User: Fold these one by one.
Assistant:
Number 1:
Amino acid sequence: MNTVAAQTWVRPKQELGPVARLFDWKPFLVTICLLPAVGLLLVFLTYPLGLGIYLAFTDTTIGRSGIWVGLENFEFLLEDKLWWNAVFYSVFYTGIATIAKFGLGLWLALLLNNHLPFKSILRAIILLPWIVPTVLSAIAFWWIYDPQFSIISYLLTDVLGWRTTNVDFIGSPWPARWSLIAANVWRGIPFVAISLLAGLQTISPSLYEAAMLDGTSGWQRFRYITFPMLLPILAIVMTFSIIFTFTDFQLVYAITRGGPINSTHLLATLAFQRGIPAGQLGEGAAIAVSMIPFLVFATLFSYFALARRKWQQGEADD
Amino acid sequence: MTDAHLPTADDEANGPAKPSSSALAERMAWDTRSRRMVTIYLPLACFVLILLFPFYWMTVTAFKPNAELYDYKTYNPFLIGSPTLDHIRHLLFKTAYPTWLLTTMTVSVCATALSLVSSTLAAYAIQRLRFRGSQYVGLAIYLAYLVPPSILFIPLAIMVTWFGLFDTPMALILVYPTFLIPFCTWLLIGYFKSIPYELEECALIDGATRLQILREITLPLAVPGLISAGIFSFTLSWNEFIYALAFIQSSEKKTVPVAILTELVTGDVYQWGALMAGSLLGSLPVALFYSLFVDYYVSSLTGAVKE
């Protein structure tokens, strides 16, 4: 009986054809599984990244493959007022928007962390600005910022009577810069808030109970429990936010296209303007490459913040 | 502040018979109702109001006749006097909007399918097959997510031309996975990790091949993870802008976000009604799709960040 049982038990293994056996051979299987993802990423991400850096050192234009010109593009950029302007505005835009997004996002997350009715509906509503295509909400902001028919101007002048003239949102440099930042913050708050809310929910309530027994104030509980426990997630979310705010393109392109008088160009919009419509691919690539040092800095920050907590969900624990 | 509300409804309800429990309840609920109103509900209402206002404004504008749209004196701008479908009719029958929607849909679905298949396989290999160096492959894929499209679009535009794909939706289908795969793989690795490995070991002992295990055991258990990865991919490809702007030139092949900005904005007079109607219609599919699966979405978004 036993032998018969054993034979029937091993039979499935024997029936495997050569192809099936090949697919069960681990090195082959690993290669096959990784091939589509790694292949796509190598061809459409790693290679273009290298190509972009190479292009930055050539004078390629549309329809003509360029020749190696060394650092000429970068020397040109260093003397280009517009580029310096874009660097300034990129840093300014990222800095102010990040501070505002995280300040308000953290506040919203703390508010949502209370016991509230309709919690899940509330979360769904709050995520909406993040779900909807940026360009489409940017067009809505463009309409809100309209010089003549802005609803904010209407509120301020006709309803509240605080002003006598319409607000000039995107007609002159500084108001335009602030208006774009406001739109970016509006779009960014939901993601920050929901991510931080996830972090807040992992903090054990017993910590707060213990602290309350010790007679701490609300601020002390935030400062010595909430904030330190939130720090790892804060670091990750902030890195992502900084990278994608610094390289933002859609909002600025949709609302002001870099104007008025080129005051709101970010590096990405400047690179697009020089690279695609104007056809100066080499110069556009150089502008894009000039973003890399900032990104490397942000990525290293992310890597070390993540490495402290392992890169995902306790990977190295097993 | 904490002592300011000693006699509460709770105390009266519990009575003096249980002093210890009411004292605890009082300490836990450290704010009174009116204070809670001011510190929680009021700011929350402001947040929701501000976050939703642009959508409200978009909707109101899309259904207003032009006469009301540009006359704030006689009509209250926050309300619609006589709603009209003119803008939507104009959009659907006088422009190529249906074609743009169709193109966007096709591109999003294909890019999502392509990235879902690739990232499921990759995540399975990294998390379950456990080859040497799998951690580093995972880290490399994660780092790929940190490379923003803004620095890739110029070289990619050149490459797309090399492949003869310039001005075709195929270019977008092939390029979108570069930002979809890292995210999906990352999400799915986390998801696969939550499935007990013992289940696979049992199947292995029973003589199942690795592929059978993936098909029969891991994938059915990972369906919620796959759904959320799918939603993410779909939304991200629907929202993508810079590649579509750089690679597509002919009007009928444009995606909705690009087309609205480049085709509907004509001359100096903006057709705000049509623009808002276009934005509204372009946002609706994503919003609907998202609302169907919102629970998966929120849980995976929070799960991906959660440690």
Number 2:
Amino acid sequence: MQLKGAQIVWECLVREGVKTIFGYPGGAILPTYDAMLDYPIHHVLVRHEQGATHMADGYARASGRVGAAIATSGPGATNMVTGIATAMMDSSPMVCITGQVGSRAIGTDAFQETDVTGVTLPVTKHNYLVTRAEDIARTLREAFYIAASGRPGPVLVDITKDAQQSSCEFDWDAAAPKLPGYRPNLRALPEEFQRALDLINHAQRPLILAGHGVMMSGARQQVLEFAERAQVPLALTLLGLGGIPASHPLNLGMMGMHGEAWVNNAIQQADLLIACGMRFDDRVTGNVKTYGLNAKKIHFEIDPSEINKNVKVDVGIVGDLREMLEDLLPGVKSADHSAWLDHINQMKGDAAVLDIQSLPDTGHLYAAHVINDIWRYTEGKAVTVTDVGQHQMWEAQYYRHEKPRSLITSGGLGTMGFALPAAIGAKFAMPEEEIWVIAGDGGFQMTFAELATIAQENIKLNVAIINNGYLGMVRQWQEFFYEKRYAATPMLSPDFVKLVEAYGLKGLRVTQRSEVKAAVDEARAHPGTVVIDFRVEQEDSVFPMVPAGADLHAMIRRPAPVQVDVMAETGADLHAMIRRPAPAQVDVMAETGADEGDWDLGATT
Amino acid sequence: MAKHIFVSYVEDKPGVLNRVASLFRRRAFNIESLTVGHTEQPGVSRMTIVVDADDLTARRIEANLYKLVNVLRVDDVTGKPAVVRDLALIKVAVSANNRTEVMQLADVFRARIVDVTNESVIIEITGTEDKIEGLVDVLRPFGIIEMVRTGLVAMARGAVTVSPNPPLVAAAIPQPAQTDMAGVAMSV
């Protein structure tokens, strides 16, 4: 059938299963917007194109399907770059469609012309410039295929205005992808697994490092079967949270810069690290020269270029994680690692008493309390979408995720402003779920224009602003590493309650811990979006912390319990106790030394 | 660090050279030379890429090249039986007194004189990098006015046919120390 390029765009999107698209119109994409009205796709008008990409990203992470965003040429497209880079770093499947000036105007610095394929080349999995209507169908089919297959990622399709306007024959079946050089379905040969099995079946202190790949390949069952049969404890990356239930007895929790001490120490003491769908990011390893020196390493990974990139491994196996584990499982023997598990539990017991949750309630409002209370009152069943910073780390520590895709967060790129738009996208993917946005006062102000999108679309979100009047994580680094010289981190914010009321939404403010439950309950009961301004302790810090580039076991730990007792007994302000340990006061080696027990930690000597 | 020579087949599409060059730039791989041209197959171009890299980095480069959707095949021909050639055009300042001497030198290197004026000659030489460096060294005292080199092109020796787009390729897992590089079946 003879169709215009603009119509072909929508014919393809409908056939690719797109129900919702996030976008912003403009001159070069106008023909496509005009055709949109005739197709059964819901368009969400964003307030900034960055929001459209985060929404498509959030939609993709919540659903596992490809998210779609659309914008015009020039500034519309460049505004998308941050969201595309965010999706790229976290392997989120997304297709972005941008209008481009007419093909004959390309290269003339025409109005709103930008070399969008050039600009987005390093931050997309692949991208296209389409100058003929005849090429639109195949290109879009390839784009969706590439975005979703192998290691997923964002694909951008830039379509010139004349390609949208001209007509051609549309034949979906004839436009099947032609990608001779694209090989996403890697599969390791069976003999590859023997070397891995030899290591696994002989390990004394094995540890599984579970990442985003567990969720993306749907390997939860296989990982658990493996862990349970061989009695191997699991440590999770930030993006891996929810991939394995937090309540599972073998799940130790999050690793890395703000991971729990017992997790990082277990990594350093293990004799075998089994990485499953994770990429040894620097926030996970700390100093790679001293990372897991006691351990042999096996890396199950879908992307060959990740193997031996950051950490040298003994066995690297490429493929889809679930398929690999299915091939591996028949050879995994039952094992008893109770000495190793007991040792970890002992470390855990020591650290737990330092936990902020065990501190007396003095009435002060701490972000960790707020997040832990939200977890408690939502019974851990909400989907949380976080921004980037201290609150993100507290969320990872104090909201315990049981199910996959219940935490949506920008891990790799660390994009402030991600949370609110990503939550909007997630809501369209899972309208029945209770969604909580957890954002700082800084990040919230980067993209809060999307409150108008929420109002226009009439969707229900719960938003917790962890408002400490600082760019908290940067302030924490300034406190620890820059002698408390707070350069440009104190931050004035508007009255968030009034602000959200101006959008016709409900705003609440909480300043005392005793008010948290009522506010959370009220937000959950309200049919529309509610934003709660939690005025939390201003100079609180996230513990434990591995300073950037430091050894993984060289953590700045939570305040010592003896201090807590003294303070509590003398009735001193909790505030005074929480701010203490500047790095100079912390004898890092002595602390980790106490945790090392009988295990030989070659790295430190 | 050592020199690695990659021969890569890529789809002949707009922007592919940019994708390859961008990859080397953003991953901070040192590119020494890159040549690109047609092959015997329509729609397939062939690149010879010379990089300064240790073995592990070379494997990472290979793996990253394979991630590019338009890249069909990558072979590291370093250390394998292969013909490797560079072509240079060298314009040398001469006078009536020393022109014969320059021409004799060119002859020794089996180079050709392709242009002669009263003040200069252009010498064309094809060969390995060492051979060209040798000629350049002996010509330098006469005064080199300008020089251009193509960068290396390479081809494996022997009659074995190489499919530009094989269904089965080495997994390109960066594992320098092991010869038993993982075999992985890849299918589209």
